[in-house]
């Protein structure tokens, strides 16, 4: 356990120890100067009256007269002065060590080489510090400029040496993050491919969190077609979490590049309901960024009677994204009056995402506060924040009628809305 010191005591202790060390070192090396005295350079016997350069005490003979005027050095005391100096250095780095760990004061190259023989946590933390001092924080991205390219390449090779035999799950996931950065920052095409291949091999690991971590980081935007094929392959995995990773990767590629929509359409036929739902969502998200895809509309529309409520919910939101404004509002209005509560919820979300809203849609959104389904009422209460205050004032009487509703959440929401529009 690391002993924690208060910073004022650390600096005071470091100053005192440093001054003592410097004073002792100066005394050992410079205190006993010749000051005009002739002395033997070995035993320091006085030779002021000696007729030759040979010491009458020990027999040592100086090479010249200058050799008899040397300063006496006390090397043992000089060595002893290293103790307080080391103590001063130890105390001086404690604030940094206590905040960032011992690895933060060790050069990055040394830490990378240490990883090849020692993967204890302080080494891991030290490397993460050099990559980015905030890298350990959640959602923090590494900084490619923190290391030289040759250091990134060295780090990649160190990881490739260690990762195959690594049994700790958390550490294996850290290696995944590092490799994904090394692949781009190293500037070596062959090494980059080796890093990506290593991440792809991790997709067969027995632990789902390892597979999940590797899946998201194995997307190669220089080889979109290969990454799409990789994601499609994951959709057939026996583990539902890996299938989730596959459809998420496919959606990510589609949203960023506009490619992969045919694969998303095929994923609508997957037996996994979560895959179908995310495929529908990704089609809508891609349409928002890259424009609607006519071939996707029919495939999404065909899921009207899907057995999963979340799929039916997301279907309405995406259909609105794939249509023109006039057609989208017709779809939303029909959804808000549908018998299926999941469809009504989808209509509420789709209405909240679009502007300007027709008056009859705003009225229907408010009326949903009295819906028989609790989840619809909850969503309707949340969507009131998206309706203009002027529109809400026009329907203040209707809102007041919900103050006596059986649902306490509805009553609380309506009270807040009425206070806001007064």
What would your notes on this structure say?
The chain is mostly helical and 422 residues long. α5 crosses α6 and α8 runs antiparallel to α9. About 2% of the residues have low confidence.
Low-confidence regions: 134-140
**Fraction of residues in β-strands:** under 5%
Q: What structural class do the secondary elements suggest?
A: mainly alpha
Mean pLDDT: 86
Largest sheet, strands/sense/barrel:
none
Number of strands: 0
Inertia-based shape? elongated
Total of domains: 3
Number of helices: 23
Task: Briefly characterize the structure.
This protein has 422 residues and is mainly alpha-helical. It has 23 helices and no strands. The protein is elongated.
Which characteristics define this entry?
single chain; about 425 residues; mainly alpha; Leucine-rich Repeat Variant; 23 helices; elongated
Q: What secondary-structure arrangement, pairings included, does this model have?
A:
Layout: H1 7-30, H2 75-80, H3 82-92, H4 94-100, H5 108-115, H6 121-131, H7 149-163, H8 169-185, H9 189-201, H10 208-217, H11 224-234, H12 240-257, H13 261-267, H14 273-290, H15 294-301, H16 309-322, H17 325-336, H18 341-352, H19 359-367, H20 374-383, H21 389-394, H22 396-401, H23 408-421
Helix pairs in contact: 1-3, 5-6, 5-7, 7-8, 8-9, 8-10, 10-12, 11-12, 12-13, 12-14, 13-14, 14-16, 15-16, 16-17, 16-18, 17-18, 17-19, 18-20, 20-23
């Amino acid at each position: 356990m690391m002993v924690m010191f208060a910073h004022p005591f650390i600096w005071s202790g470091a100053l005192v120890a440093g001054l003592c060390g410097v004073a002792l070192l100066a005394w050992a090396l410079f205190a006993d100067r010749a000051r005009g005295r002739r002395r033997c350079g070995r035993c320091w016997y006085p030779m002021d009256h000696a007729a030759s350069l040979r010491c009458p005490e020990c027999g040592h003979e100086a090479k010249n007269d200058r050799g008899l005027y040397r300063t006496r050095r006390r090397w043992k005391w000089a060595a002893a002065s290293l103790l307080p100096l080391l103590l001063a250095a130890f105390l001086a780095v404690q604030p940094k060590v206590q905040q960032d760990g011992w690895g933060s004061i060790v050069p990055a190259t040394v830490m990378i080489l240490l990883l090849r023989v020692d993967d204890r946590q302080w080494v891991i933390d030290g490397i993460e510090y050099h990559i980015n001092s905030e890298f350990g924080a959640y959602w923090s991205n590494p900084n490619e400029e923190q290391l030289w390219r040759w250091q990134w390449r060295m780090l990649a090779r160190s990881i490739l040496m260690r990762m195959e035999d690594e049994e700790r799950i958390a550490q294996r996931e850290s290696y995944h993050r590092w490799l994904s950065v090394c692949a781009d920052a190293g500037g070596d095409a062959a090494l980059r491919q080796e890093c990506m291949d290593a991440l792809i091999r991790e997709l067969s690991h027995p632990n789902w969190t390892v597979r999940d971590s590797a899946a998201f980081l194995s997307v190669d935007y220089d080889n979109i077609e290969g990454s799409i094929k990789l994601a499609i392959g994951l959709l057939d995995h026996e583990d539902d979490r890996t299938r989730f990773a596959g459809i998420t990767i496919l959606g990510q590629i589609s949203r960023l590049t506009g490619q992969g929509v045919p694969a998303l359409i095929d994923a609508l036929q997957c037996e996994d309901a979560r895959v179908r739902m995310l495929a529908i969502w990704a089609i809508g998200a891609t349409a928002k960024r890259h424009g609607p895809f006519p071939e996707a509309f029919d495939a999404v529309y065909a899921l009207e009677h899907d057995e999963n409520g979340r799929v039916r919910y997301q279907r309405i939101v995406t259909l609105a994204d794939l249509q023109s404004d006039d057609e989208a509002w017709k779809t939303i209005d029909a959804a808000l009056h549908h018998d299926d509560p999941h469809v009504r919820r989808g209509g509420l979300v789709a209405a909240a995402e679009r502007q300007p809203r027709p008056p009859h849609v705003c009225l229907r959104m408010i009326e949903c506060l009295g819906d028989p389904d609790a989840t619809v009422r909850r969503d309707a209460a949340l969507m009131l924040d998206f309706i203009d205050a002027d529109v809400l004032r026009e329907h203040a009487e209707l809102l007041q009628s919900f103050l006596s509703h059986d649902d306490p959440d509805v009553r609380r929401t309506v009270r807040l809305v009425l206070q806001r529009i007064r």
